[in-house]
Amino acid sequence: xxxxxxxxxxxxxxxAHTGAGGGGTAGFSIAYPDAAAGRAGKKFYAKTxxxxxxxxxxxxxWAITGARVTTGELPPGxxxxxxxxxxxxxxxxxYRVKITFSGVTCAGKEIADPTIDVAxxxx
Length: 123
Description:
Distance between the termini: 38 Å
Structural class: mainly beta
Shape: elongated
Order of helices and strands: EEEEEEEEEEEEEE
Number of helices: 0
């Protein structure tokens, strides 16, 4: 069973989706570990990091084909490109968004589109 979303549990941007692949044959998680903070006027880049494992614990390959903001707005000046949050933020503040990933595969199995909560603080 795949969780519909995850809730931030350890700081800004530290949230990960976790769930099993189709048929319970793989474990998968995805997060933006570097999305916690940035500075207005400075280049920002936060890449997705994922983990995919077979039932026996061995690492497996994973991929996504897209990512989009489904709730909230990224800081002005930032956008999602190839799954990464990138750009030069213009305005200070704390921004909370839900990002949904599409075309997710883990260990050759399709994963229902995971959604994660991401908070980005721009100073």
